[in-house]
Amino acid sequence: xxxxxxxxxxxxxxxxxPGLPGLETLEAHDLRLQYERHFHDTxxxxxxxxxxxxxxxxxxxxxxxxxxxxxFNPGEVHDGGPATPQGWSYRMVxxxxxxxxxxxxxxxxxxxxxxxxxxTLELFDAIDYGTALGIEASLALVLDTLLSQRPESxxxxxxxxxxxxxxxEECCEPLRLGHLAALAGRxxxxxxxxxxxxxxxxxxxxxxxxxxxxxxNLILQGRPLAEVAAMCGYADQGHLNRWFLRIHGTTPxxxxxxxxxxxxxxxxxxxxx
Length: 273
What we know:
- The protein is an alpha+beta fold and 273 residues long.
- The protein has helices at residues 114-129, 132-146, 158-170, 177-184, 188-199, 203-220, 225-231, 237-248, 252-260, and strands at 11-16, 23-31, 35-38, 43-51, 53-57, 60-64, 69-72, 78-82, 88-95, 104-105, 110-111, 148-149, 269-270.
- The chain has a 7-stranded antiparallel beta sheet with strand order 11-7-4-9-2-1-13.
- α3 (158-170) runs antiparallel to α4 (177-184).
- Mean pLDDT is 86; it is low at 1-7 and 262-273.
């Protein structure tokens, strides 16, 4: 089983795969950080290398031991953190939905079989040592192994969907609960319960996840961090830092340095958890 280099301090690397738009990767060693409940607009999967991760997906609580391949569909709400004081080590890859043709989804929250592990590790080997062609080939193989046709599922009511769309469009604005409840035709408490049941997050948490996603895109565009904070509705840069760290496990400054590095390499820094 492949493992990360040894060390006593948490190490975190996160950033795009050079030359392959729509593909990002993360590597963490001895991480003791607790992620807030959040979601990604991408497909996300990876492998636990050491330690045990404690991860809630929806209402299910999971424990991922070494060799487990966790999988998250776009929009799937989850958190993550160490199950033991020693932390855990893992790698992840984030795949833009544009790179996945058809209506496909991960049919389960994790896999522990040898083929899933092999294909996932082959992808990370290609990312570390291969060419763009090799990465694309390994990605195609692992996605074919892990994904299946998206099953039909219940759809949230149109009124709740309208609230979600309003937050998507105006996430950086000072939204008010009363206005959103009126849009849904529900009481404020009725909206809070219904929205959390449908989407796994309260409207407030969902708004912050959307704000952080917007901030990430602005950072990728090269905007100054203070400007990003203001444009995304945060009181100051420190407020942006706190939410970005909770969701992405790194600060906006570290993320920007990873993007702007001359070699295009992933973030290479340390975190204190």
